[in-house]
Amino acid sequence: MAKTDYPTQSTSHIGRIRHRRNGAKPAKWATNAATKSPTVANTVEPASRPAECEANAVRKIVRLVARTGCRTHILHVSSGLSVDVLRRAKAEGLPVSAETCPHYLTLDCDHIPDNATAFKCCPPIRDLHEQDALWAGLADGTLDGVVTDHSPASADMKAGTLATAWGGVSSLQVGFRAVLTGAMRRGLSLTDVVRWMSCNTARLVGLDDRGDITPVLRADLAIIRPYERFVVDATALESRNPICACDGMTLNGVVTRTFVAGRDALSGVREGNLIVRP
Ligand SMILES: [Zn+2]
């Protein structure tokens, strides 16, 4: 499969944040790996962007960090090889931070239905072995956080085949609870998930007025029942587009109330318009 069969969507790169989808050249790997694959629909995406390419890109960045001392953040880590590179970089005291996303932690490429474009993203969703390595990276602090990388693509953009559909996973409303479910299954706790998805992320981007439950800080809060389970129904989500890679999954965490800057997010909100400005 040629590289040109997989259009890369444009992405803005802000400052020193490095988006690893522009990593090492995947074309040759893709040709070899994809032609060997029996089920193209399921395997072509990971085969087109192998974990080794991702790790090479991260290695290259880490070398530049060592040379320049430039504070650097790696987005969307999807592979254990990259976690290994980052673990060593952090042990050397280099100023790098890194994150992964709910889909890399909770979905795996061997259980994706054929041609299910809801799962197409860059880097691709890899196998359970890689997933375990990402959880280990979170548990030991190599990965600092989990961010949504929510992609609100319309049904039109997600239509077609894996080769042509827009890349990106839509999961904003359920991502936190997908990670919570995975964490609880692995003996990790709600506190860990809050650290990865709230405290650390707020600190990373300099939102000093939130990220902890403390007097004087801004109260952006969700009250949730972590042990109560629900089934994700993509058509019932608040998203404009009824597409979600978690559709049909049973997840932990029912939200009972949400506060934005201390105010009940749903009070005075018109039906069908959840936008509130505190
Ligand atoms: Zn992204």
Automatic annotation (TrEMBL):
<feature type="domain" description="Amidohydrolase-related">
    <location>
        <begin position="128"/>
        <end position="263"/>
    </location>
</feature>
<dbReference type="GO" id="GO:0006145">
    <property type="term" value="P:purine nucleobase catabolic process"/>
</dbReference>
<feature type="compositionally biased region" description="Polar residues">
    <location>
        <begin position="1"/>
        <end position="13"/>
    </location>
</feature>
<dbReference type="InterPro" id="IPR050138">
    <property type="entry name" value="DHOase/Allantoinase_Hydrolase"/>
</dbReference>
<feature type="region of interest" description="Disordered">
    <location>
        <begin position="1"/>
        <end position="36"/>
    </location>
</feature>
<protein>
    <submittedName>
        <fullName>Allantoinase</fullName>
    </submittedName>
</protein>
<dbReference type="InterPro" id="IPR032466">
    <property type="entry name" value="Metal_Hydrolase"/>
</dbReference>
<dbReference type="InterPro" id="IPR006680">
    <property type="entry name" value="Amidohydro-rel"/>
</dbReference>
<dbReference type="Pfam" id="PF01979">
    <property type="entry name" value="Amidohydro_1"/>
</dbReference>
<dbReference type="GO" id="GO:0005737">
    <property type="term" value="C:cytoplasm"/>
</dbReference>
<dbReference type="GO" id="GO:0004038">
    <property type="term" value="F:allantoinase activity"/>
</dbReference>
<dbReference type="InterPro" id="IPR011059">
    <property type="entry name" value="Metal-dep_hydrolase_composite"/>
</dbReference>
